[in-house]
Design brief:
single chain, 4 helices, mainly alpha, 0% strand, 167 residues
Length: 167
């Protein structure tokens, strides 16, 4: 089967649909978050506590292992894996801190968040951004583009674009 590039119209339609879906999700999430904030009890006895935390840490272990494996193999997929791992580490710190508020264990959670989870998350995010920058710099070089590429946060969705920036 021959390779056929996607048309600009097709890409625009798909992008628009995806953004509309995400906006709808935001429209539902805002009132849902407010509802939860005012309606949930301050305390709750959790069932399957051990399973919940062991499962979460297992997921974190899988994400981190995948990130290490993909990095070792020098695969581009290491970038989303690193971002997912960082996200799980931030969630871990958040849940540890908020669930230990008002208990003697809060200091262990603070120490764990400040000394391990958040610095490791920052490491994974920083590395992901560096890899994106390196990838786009390599693409610019291979395409013979003399100008330096924009920062990752200003980078167009598909890497290289001659369209004006829409901030």
């Amino acid at each position: 089967m021959a390779y056929r590039p996607l048309s600009a119209d097709f890409i625009r339609r798909r992008r628009r649909r995806a953004l509309e879906l995400l906006l709808a999700c935001l429209a539902v999430l805002v009132p849902w978050t407010i509802f939860l904030a005012v309606s949930l009890p301050d305390q709750y006895r959790a069932h399957h506590w051990r399973l919940t935390w062991a499962g979460f840490d297992g997921l974190l272990l899988i994400a981190m292992s995948l990130t290490v494996y993909l990095g070792w193999r020098r695969r581009q997929a290491v970038i989303p894996a690193a971002i997912a791992t960082a996200t799980l580490l931030i969630c871990d710190a958040w849940f540890d801190l908020t669930l230990d508020l008002g208990t003697p264990d809060i200091w262990w959670s603070v120490a764990s968040a400040v000394l391990v989870e958040l610095p490791l998350a920052a490491f994974f995010l920083t590395r992901a951004f560096i890899l994106i920058s390196m990838t786009i710099r390599q693409a610019y070089t291979q395409l013979g583009i003399e100008e330096p590429p924009p920062s990752v946060l200003k980078l167009p969705l598909f890497g290289i674009s001659r369209e004006p920036d829409r901030d």
